[in-house]
């Protein structure tokens, strides 16, 4: 069973909501329609593992860089604090190794990722990732960051 989310956000107009799998750590998925000339759509995945789960910040940023066959220093990291919510933004471009964590990988050159770790005191870390062809990702970057900057903590209803 999925742990309840202690945050809320609003996806930008034009993004297509996909139904998440029950019990999965992927809590939301959006398709960002591709720009002309790109072969594929971009995707936004929202992941939540639970309050004390999901690994530390540095390990996650290193894993994201590793999905591009690069080191953490090859990307750009920015920190923001918005009230009680902290954001760590990580951006990288190159050849993305697509696939599930322990499964086979498909190299996708010309890709980019903007990842945001949303840090809350009450419910822990949430992971937002925009990944896809570089042109589409860079075009969607401002809307994605605006969505993440609009994240608000919400009380979790007691059962």
State the main characteristics.
alpha+beta; two-stranded antiparallel sheet; globular
Q: What is the N-to-C order of secondary-structure elements (H for helix, E for strand)?
A: EEEEHEEEEHE
Helix content: 10-25%
Low-confidence spans: pLDDT under 50, at least 5 residues? Answer: none
Biggest sheet strand line-up: 2-3-4-8-7-6-5
What share of the residues does DSSP label as strand, in percent?
35-45%
Straight-line N-to-C gap: 14 Å
Total number of strands: 9
| Mean pLDDT rating | 90
- Tell me the structural class: alpha+beta
How many alpha or pi helices? 2
Please specify the SSE layout and strand pairing.
Elements: E1 7-8, E2 16-18, E3 26-32, E4 42-48, H1 57-66, E5 76-82, E6 85-98, E7 106-120, E8 124-133, H2 134-149, E9 152-153
Antiparallel strand pairs: 1-9, 2-3, 3-4, 4-8, 5-6, 6-7, 7-8
């Amino acid at each position: 069973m999925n742990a309840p989310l202690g945050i809320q956000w609003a996806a930008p107009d034009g993004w297509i909501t996909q139904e998440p799998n029950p019990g999965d750590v992927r809590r939301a998925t959006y398709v960002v329609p591709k720009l002309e000339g790109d072969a594929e759509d971009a995707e936004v995945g929202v992941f939540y593992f639970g309050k004390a789960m999901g690994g530390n910040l540095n390990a996650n940023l290193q894993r994201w860089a590793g999905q591009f066959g690069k080191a953490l220093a090859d990307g750009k990291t920015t920190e923001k604090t918005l009230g009680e919510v902290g954001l760590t933004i990580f951006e990288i471009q190159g050849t993305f190794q697509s696939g599930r964590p322990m499964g086979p990988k498909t190299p996708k050159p010309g890709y980019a990722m903007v990842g945001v770790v949303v840090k809350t005191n009450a419910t822990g870390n949430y992971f937002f990732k925009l990944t896809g062809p570089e042109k589409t990702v860079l075009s969607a970057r401002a809307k994605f960051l605006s969505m993440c900057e609009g994240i608000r903590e919400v009380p979790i209803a007691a059962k």
